Structures are given as C-alpha cells and as structure tokens.
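In this section we walk through a basic example: taking a raw amino acid sequence and producing a predicted 3D structure, encoded as discrete structure tokens. The instruction is simple. Fold the sequence below.
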Amino acid sequence: MKTTTFYYAKQLARENKRIKVPPSKKLDELDFGSLVKVSVFMEKFWVKIIKVENDNVTGIIDCALRNHFWHGLKFGDTVKFRLSNIYQIY
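The resulting token sequence is shown next.
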C-alpha cells in the first residue's frame, strides 16, 4: 500500500470555485465499489473504494496518472485517505 499526502477537499474548493465538496450525507453513504476523486501533488484522479471504516478510506487507483514520478502512485495501487480528501463522487 502506498502512502502520500492527499489534499483536503475544502482547501481545493477554496482555491478553485468550480470544485464543490460533497455533502457529509453523501460521504457517509460511500461503500465498496464507490468511485471518488481525490488529489495529490496537483494531480486529481479516481479511486475505487474497497473499504470505509469511520473516516478512513482504502481504495484502488482507477485511472492512469501523468505525474507518477512526483508522488510514486500509479494505476492499480492501493491507497489510504480520509473522507475529508474526497472532492467528487461519481
């Protein structure tokens, strides 16, 4: 499992007015198989959730990443992050 620092969704929304943070109710409904978007080192990408436990989320990166040389993440990697890092739900 890869570890890195994910951006907080509310911070992204403050920096970019087009980003709308999902409401808490929607975040609470996330479960296995949900597709969410997160951001790390200025790269935004989709993650398919495999586990939600309290505020902690485990998922698998579900798209190709362009800046993998900066953060070391790639398609198929398992990552952990928090609900507060999610800024979009598919």
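Looking at the output, two observations stand out. The helical segments are 9-15, 24-28, 68-71. The chain has three helices and five strands. In the next section we compare this with other chains.
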